[in-house]
Amino acid sequence: MTGSESTGKTTLAGSIAEHYGVAWIPEFARDYAENKIEPLTADDVGPIAAGQIAREDAAFQNASGVIILDTDVVSTAVYAEHYYGRVPGWIEQAARERLADLYLLCDTDLPWVADQVRDAQHHRRQVHDLFVQRLAQLAATVRVVGGITSPDQRLKRALEHIEDWCQSAPTSFA
Fold this sequence. Notes:
single chain; mainly alpha; two-stranded parallel sheet; 7 helices; 5 strands; 52% helix; globular
């Protein structure tokens, strides 16, 4: 899953993982931000990326088969660019090296829901466009999940994208 904040990524990741009976990895940045007393700064980008990578690596060591990620290092790069205007080189490299097989890019058509971490309500479309650009630069395989606001219909659309992709992927993942 990837995309701007408050687009249903976490809900969708959990539902997809449950549907396929596979593991899913929660977003590290959210946990990090919730536990930090002060606002995030550019100095937090590295620890967030490292934490996300460590969380993914631990999951991959213990899993057999597919893992659903609720964001990845590409998200860290996009948000670093959005908030601080730059992305550390090692994070750019990690995003290229750790590119997922398929990205489900959640559109901004769900109502924004406030919480203690979210702050980009008026920038969601701008951030979404940054995701589109970054994923295109990385030549990632992307399917957009949008145009519907019902969680059940979004799940149905996401599963259709996954099944369509699996039909054309060189190796079966589902």
